[in-house]
Design brief:
It contains 6 helices and 5 strands. By secondary structure, it is of the alpha/beta class. It binds adenosine-5'-diphosphate. Adenosine-5'-diphosphate binds next to α1 and β4.
């Protein structure tokens, strides 16, 4: 039984992440997607929102589970008896950061291997950050995310930009 975890912030999950999930789930027996609380970053979406969007994205994938986690990735892997950490690699810019994370995890527990899956070319320039930026200008992101994520992004930025009755710019005089 080969188990793997796929940790990330998923703020929000994109079709690039989903491609990595599908491909790694076809290699291992069980995959646990770990949605990281990540106190260091200031995510756009709350933990329950990010969790809900990942769950929706993987529905119907029989050997894929989703869980939230806080703390060290290796501890999350051990909790699930997972021997593999999945990460995705896009451009060379991912490489240095991913190597550092993988080496750190390896220095903590050398029994757990990091396995890198190279991005599908169509998702090579896709990131949660670019999706959020495009959506923040009201542009269509439906080619990069699930319909649920597209809707949530739309709601989020409408919430942020919706003029409030007290906004001085909309006073009539
Ligand atoms: P982080 O874990 O750094 O907060 P993410 O949650 O965005 O970042 O991503 C989780 C993992 O998925 C990382 O290994 C990242 O490189 C990978 N990833 C993100 N976007 C893509 C993509 N478009 N194609 C392949 N892998 C990706």
């Amino acid at each position: 039984m080969v188990r793997a975890i796929y940790p990330g912030s998923f703020d929000p999950v994109t079709l690039g992440h989903i491609d990595i999930i599908k491909r790694s789930a076809s290699i291992v027996d069980e995959l646990v997607v770990g949605v990281l609380v990540n106190k260091g970053k200031h995510p756009l979406f709350s933990m329950p929102e990010r969790y809900e969007m990942v769950c929706d994205a993987v529905k119907g994938m029989k050997n894929v589970k989703v869980e939230t986690f806080d703390g060290m990735t290796v501890d999350f892997a051990k909790k699930h008896n997972a021997s593999i950490i999945i990460r995705g690699l896009r451009a060379i810019t991912d490489y240095e950061n991913e190597m550092q994370i993988a080496q750190t995890n390896r220095s903590i527990d050398s029994d757990i291997e990091t396995m890198f899956l190279i991005t599908d070319l169509q998702y090579a320039y896709l990131s949660s950050t670019t999706v959020k930026e495009i959506a923040s200008y009201g542009k269509d992101v439906s080619a990069s995310v699930t319909p649920l994520v597209a809707r949530k992004l739309h709601e989020k930025f409408n919430e942020v930009h919706a003029p409030k009755p007290t906004d001085p710019k909309i006073r009539l005089c």
